[in-house]
């Protein structure tokens, strides 16, 4: 099977500014652990404050880009994955290009002349993380870039698509173009619930594209928020996963599968009116470095098997393996070669 360009991701490329902080820092900026938000004015000084910390690390990130890089790492096939998003014409942007090329991902960035490359503050306390994204250039992505022949060629070549829900805040029309292409050409389209604020404040945009989703990823907090927003009056993750999988479908080619992770608790998979649970690889607390990128890595591992036509059990196993590797390291980084079979 030809794997070149088989998986395409589209999203917000962000440079993670990661540092271990304390509870006072979280209070000062009014942020919560295990949450992801967009920066408001009150958060802007935090980037400088974190940059001045001696333990600060800069890691190329952004949810979709993380997943695509992990899928690429798991596949070990040069050019199997592609990625589209918007960066600034600056030092951080150059860093991002270098990092992605080194990861083996075929990136087609739109470069914005007016806005700096987006950043994401990763505030780590006791291994748990809080994310505050300052999108900047990432927010400037336009579907005109996607429609250019050299970029649309990536869409035509790909058989699988993955877009994090965060991109709904930036370019819903780009998402719609890819979703409709996937439905019309019997290709697999997948998205992530991504964060409670997406389910709450971008509900209409999310609902518009949901019928096109063949795979819906998310974690338990996002699933419960989705349930609450839709008036389902249940907190039961298995029940919510099932309801999402039974949402009307636009393509009719594939039955929708919902995959919900729950940290150290089993992964919930709803498919065909049934729910299965898969245990994760448990990690002793002292080996946990940080959970930043754990969910992204799970999706990357999962997709690396899905594009090879492997059964769902193998996809989940690979997802659990990848997230287990990533939480033992800082940010969404990994060793040179995967040790997965």
Report on this model:
- Helix content is 37%, strand content 24%.
- It has 341 residues and is an alpha/beta fold.
- The protein is globular and about 50 Å long.
- The mean pLDDT is 94.
Radius of gyration: 18 Å
> Which structural class should the secondary elements be placed in?
alpha/beta
- Count of β-strands: 14
Task: Give the uncertain stretches in residue-range form.
Answer: none
The strand order across the widest sheet is: 6-5-1-9-10-11-12-13-14
What general outline do the C-alpha atoms trace?
A: globular
| Major β-sheet profile | 9 strands, mixed
Q: Please tell me the overall pLDDT.
A: 94
Strand content: 15-25%
Summarize the helix and strand pattern as letters: EEHEHEHEHEEEHHEHEHHEHHEEEHH
Percent range of helical residues: 25-40%
Distance from first to last alpha carbon: 19 Å
């Amino acid at each position: 099977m030809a794997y070149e360009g088989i998986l395409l991701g589209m999203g917000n490329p962000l440079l993670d500014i990661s540092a271990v902080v304390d509870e006072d820092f979280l209070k000062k900026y009014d942020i919560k652990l295990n949450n992801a938000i967009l920066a408001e004015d009150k958060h802007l000084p935090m980037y400088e404050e974190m940059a001045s910390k001696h333990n600060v690390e800069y890691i190329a990130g952004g949810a979709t880009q993380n997943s695509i890089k992990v899928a690429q790492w798991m596949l070990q096939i040069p050019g199997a994955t592609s990625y589209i998003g918007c960066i600034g014409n600056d030092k951080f942007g150059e860093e991002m290009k270098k990092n992605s090329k080194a990861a083996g991902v075929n990136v087609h960035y739109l470069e914005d002349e007016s806005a700096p490359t987006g950043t994401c503050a990763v505030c780590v306390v006791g291994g748990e993380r809080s994310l505050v994204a300052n999108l900047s250039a990432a927010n400037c992505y336009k579907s005109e870039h996607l429609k250019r022949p050299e970029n649309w060629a990536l869409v035509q070549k790909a058989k699988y698509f993955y877009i994090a829900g965060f991109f709904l805040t930036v370019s819903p029309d780009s998402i719609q173009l890819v979703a409709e292409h996937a439905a019309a050409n019997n290709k697999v389209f997948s998205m992530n619930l991504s964060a409670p604020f997406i389910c709450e404040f971008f509900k209409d945009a999310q609902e518009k594209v949901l019928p096109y989703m063949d795979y819906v990823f998310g974690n338990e907090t996002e699933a419960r928020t989705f349930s609450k927003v839709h008036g389902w009056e249940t907190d039961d993750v298995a029940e919510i996963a099932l309801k999402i999988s039974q949402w009307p479908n636009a393509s009719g080619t594939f039955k929708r599968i919902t995959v919900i992770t729950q940290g150290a608790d089993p992964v919930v998979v709803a498919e065909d009116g049934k729910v299965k649970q898969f245990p994760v690889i448990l990690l002793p607390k002292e080996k946990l470095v940080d959970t930043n990128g754990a969910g992204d890595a799970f999706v990357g591992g999962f997709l690396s098997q899905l594009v090879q036509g492997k059964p769902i059990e193998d996809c989940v196993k690979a997802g659990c393996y990848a997230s287990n590797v990533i939480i033992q390291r800082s940010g969404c980084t990994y060793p040179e070669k995967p040790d997965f079979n």
